[in-house]
Design a protein that fits this description.
By secondary structure, this protein is α+β, with helices and mostly antiparallel strands. It folds into 3 domains: 231 residues, BirA Bifunctional Protein, domain 2 (2-Layer Sandwich), CATH 3.30.930; 132 residues, YbaK protein; 95 residues, Rossmann fold (3-Layer(aba) Sandwich), CATH 3.40.50. Helices cover 25% and strands 30% of the residues. Helix 1 packs across helix 8. The radius of gyration is 30 Å and the shape is elongated. The protein starts with 20 loop residues before the first helix and ends with a helix.
């Protein structure tokens, strides 16, 4: 491809609205431009890079028997309508789609409203087979990220996250053991209080102590000796239900964990009217004596004796509230929101809060009751399904964020739009153009992809553009090198330049790519 004919140009300065480093680098390199609708347009350079990623994934999956399907397929519905017998399983299916990002999200292709992605699905007849294929797919994904030299950390649920500032999403990370998960679902180490014998309930006056901090201060007790009551209204099976969540006072509620535990479609704070309707009092509520409410407690509550909880009467609390004796719950589960400086659930080291972007999402293996097949005994069985989504836009952005210097991007060969950036330097004394044309033809015939800067421009301009575009190899054809039947070759990731004889160019590039 001749640079003079390439649609899109480099920019001397990043757009004023470019908030992230990836946006700045890709815009300056001539890969993307902002569109009026808040989205981004991928220019030919970016489209070539994305197609390169697609081709690699397609090859890896199809070499293992995978087959491509159309975009936006409902995999469960597809399996239900097309899989009848165990003889038709297992299957690997994949598709190229676009993800619609949440409004104002900066997690897509440099903040784009839509981001290209690859979805991979495995349909299997048993959990055992599903696990076998799961390892294979995860191996493909791991290798794919490695060839891009991306330090993507695996989350506790199996996804892969790239850690970066201004990435837009909060994660909890352990530096010691690399535990990583979204803050909404991350776990934390929980320490039970010292064992105590249950004491008798005692009602105490606690005027104006309608928060945990105020209560602990008034009674001169640590917050972990209190029970925090959180009233929420959840939508479950299209009906709103009042929910009473109880945690130890030194912990905060993860609403996402609560939603998952309830199987709720929506969740909102309960109103004072809703709380008063069940004879509870806002600020002084507890599960003791409450009826008609769905009670769910954090799994540390049953191990915490003699807590202080509300008395369901304004200005009063109860001392020595004990789970099991004074109240029970419909659900016991982990409800605590993990935060920085909490201890890691795996190694007990301090956790840190970081920003990151999910590059690979997963839907864990599970039996699909709505997609059955007939086994070898003629009985109906659920098809086991698992899915992975690779967000190519986020992957592209992560590569730009992590592979650059002050001059521009340094793209790995697996994502670079061209292998070689060939620079022609005009000369007033000899014909450098014809030699450059010959080198361009020989390199393309050898199988390399080449971006040929054939413009009649200054050397500094050409070198600056080559650095911004970031192809792995820059070959410069100029008067001085040609006098020695050589060219100057510089790897984008290195400072050094080498003179290489023209006949040895292809071998040199092959050895260094």
């Amino acid at each position: 491809m001749k640079l003079s004919e390439l649609f899109g140009s480099t920019l001397r300065k990043a757009p004023t609205n470019a908030e992230t480093k990836s946006y700045q680098l890709m815009a300056r390199g001539g890969y993307i431009r902002a569109a009026d609708n808040g989205n981004f347009v991928t220019l030919p350079l970016a489209t070539r890079s994305l197609n390169k990623l697609r081709a690699r994934i397609r090859h890896e999956i199809e070499s293992r028997g995978g087959q491509e399907i159309g975009a936006h397929a409902n995999i469960i519905q597809l399996a239900a309508g097309n899989i009848q017998s165990y003889k038709e399983l297992p299957q690997i299916l994949y598709s190229f789609d676009e993800i619609e990002q949440e409004a104002h999200s900066r997690l897509g292709l440099f903040g784009a409203a839509h981001s290209p992605n690859i979805s991979i699905h495995v349909l299997a007849e048993s959990e055992e087979t599903q696990i076998k294929f799961q390892k294979m797919i995860e191996g493909i994904i791991k290798e794919f990220l490695e060839i891009l030299d991306l330090d993507a950390k695996k989350t506790d649920c199996g996804g892969h996250v790239f850690i970066a500032k201004n990435a837009g999403a909060d994660y909890i990370h352990c530096v010691q053991c690399d535990y990583l998960d979204t803050q909404e679902f991350a776990k934390r180490s929980k320490s039970a209080l010292s064992a105590e014998d249950s004491r008798e309930l005692e009602k105490v006056a606690t005027p104006e102590a309608h928060t945990i901090d105020a209560l602990a201060a008034f009674l001169n007790i640590p917050k972990e000796k209190t029970a925090k009551a959180v009233f929420m209204t959840a939508t479950i099976d299209d009906k709103e239900k009042l929910v009473f969540a109880v945690l130890r006072g030194d912990m905060d509620l993860s609403e996402e964990k609560l939603i998952a535990a309830l199987g709720a479609s929506a969740l909102r704070p309960a109103t004072d009217v809703e709380i008063l309707a069940v004879d509870a009092v806002p600020g002084y509520a507890s599960p003791v004596g409450i009826k008609g409410v769905l009670v769910i407690v954090d799994d540390l509550i049953p191990q915490s004796a003699n807590l202080v909880a509300g008395a369901n009467e304004a200005g009063f609390h109860l001392r020595n509230v004990n789970y099991g004796r004074d109240y029970t719950a419909n659900i016991i589960t982990d409800l605590a929101l993990a935060k920085a400086n909490d201890n890691c659930p795996k190694c007990n080291s301090p956790l840190e809060a970081v920003e990151g972007v999910e590059l690979v999402g997963t839907s864990p293996a599970q039996p699909a009751e709505d997609a059955t097949y007939t086994d070898e005994n003629g009985k109906g069985q659920p098809t086991w399904t698992a899915s992975w989504t690779l967000d190519l836009g986020r992957i592209f952005a992560a590569v730009a964020e992590s592979h650059n210097d002050k001059y521009g991007m340094i793209l790995p060969p697996a994502i670079a739009p061209y292998d070689i950036h060939l620079v022609w330097l005009p000369s007033k004394t000899i014909d450098t153009r014809s030699d450059t044309d010959d080198i361009y033809l020989n390199l393309t015939n050898t199988g390399f992809t080449v971006l040929f800067d054939d413009r009649d421009a200054r050397a500094g301009t050409k070198f600056n553009d080559a650095d911004l575009i970031g192809c792995p190899v820059r070959i410069t054809v100029g008067e001085r090198a040609l006098e020695e039947d050589s060219v100057e070759i510089k790897m984008r990731a290195k400072e050094d330049k080498e003179l290489v004889e023209i006949d040895d160019i292809a071998n040199y590039v092959l050895e260094h790519l």
